[in-house]
Amino acid sequence: MSMLPAILLTGVIQGLFLALILAFARSPHQKANRWLAGFLIVFCLPLFASYLVQRQETGFVYPVFYIAQALSTAMGPLLLIYVQRLTTIKSQFSKADFWHLLPAGYLAFGIMFLLLTGGLDALRTHLPLSNPAGQKPFLVSLMGWSKGAVFVFYLIWARRQLTAFSRAMAASGDHSGLQQVAALRLLTTYFLVALGISGAGFLLAHFQLPFMNTVDFITHLAAIFFVFGVAVVVIRHPVVLNEIQEEAVARIRVKPQAQYGTSSLTEEDKILLLASLQDFMTTEKPYLDNELKAEDLARQLKVTPHHLSQVTNECLGLTFRSFINGYRLAEVKTGLIVPQNAHKTILAVALEAGFNSKAVFNRVFKETEGVTPLQYRQAHKN
Fold it and tell me: Which CATH code of 1.10.3210.10, 1.10.10.60, 1.10.3300.10, 3.40.50.300 fits the domain covering 256-379?
């Protein structure tokens, strides 16, 4: 298995390179991609620790291994938060996100404290990576099993959210991006299988059964392919995933009575908020920001996102995204026929109006106007 160190190092480099692209490349859904970048960095740490073990780099193995063990408990929460950012219009860091990530932060802080206060020798003594018989000590195995169980829990949670989201999109008649959601679901299924193989490897290692090295090699190889799989899905379909976040999610409607049954808004409050909202949209034109979220607009109006969505749903019968796109569409219709924009492409006019996806813009325009943007422009040319 002399190829294993090279394979591990290749996977680490690939994962870190992809994380850098996701974190810093400009994208309409960059906030979601940064969570995925964090997931990939944390995912690569145990692979790098395994690489050091294979290379017998004893000076670095212990600190890297235990820091990786601590931070890798955040893999599940990071993956779930990424999926939530793709399948909801939630964008701000929340208390729920904090509680999901707290255990990993606590463990990482504890390990770093030990390392900085000279506790590395004690860590080697009381929590070695292997015993004289070559087996993993019970606490090390327990750490691995616990981390695996937590990750499986979050992986299943993320998969269920993707499944529910795809069903809701299909029920709403919006099939945009279903192929990409299916690809993400396939990746989660694939990694569940990889974790099963890893669990088998733990058992073989603990009981010193045959094929231990083979299973260990297959486990690491599966992890590398998972990194490559994420790269393919994210880089190949960036615009479609943004389409999911910005438009398809917003079009999945819920019954107002069920969603806002406990709201504190009175009918008079709704009328006043609606008037304030419409006036703000006309004078300030916040819809020109192609990354505008309900949280952002609510902050500018000094109301809660919940109340803002309630007003657009109950007073206008529109989701927040449909409400915003209505203003963008009006801006585009004006922009397509004014003489000073005659040299601009239709897509350029749409992007200036706040749309950030050509597919979403074309579909919204055709559904609303009954003609394509090009037909509309030609009909109003004179």
Answer: 1.10.10.60
